[in-house]
Amino acid sequence: VRIFDGEHNPIGKAFSKQKISDMLIPYFHIDHIFYHFFPARSLPFKIPLRLHKILDKYSGFMIYLKCKKK
After folding, report:
1. Which residues face 63 on adjacent strands?
2. What is the mean predicted confidence (pLDDT) over 46-59?
3. What global pTM score does this model have?
4. CB–CB of 65/29 below 8 Å?
């Protein structure tokens, strides 16, 4: 996280899907969890857009949660 957000970024944190779910469940109903952002530009070769979209959906670096407050 620090590599992308900067060494002195106090809010740059990374959590696993399980950890973030455990932290939010007492306060929110989790409706949906999805992944996003597969950094294809960091690969040493170009990949087709269709493959990039599949990797983005299933192997993304960021986890998004759609929640409702309890």
Report:
1. 35
2. 88
3. 0.59
4. no
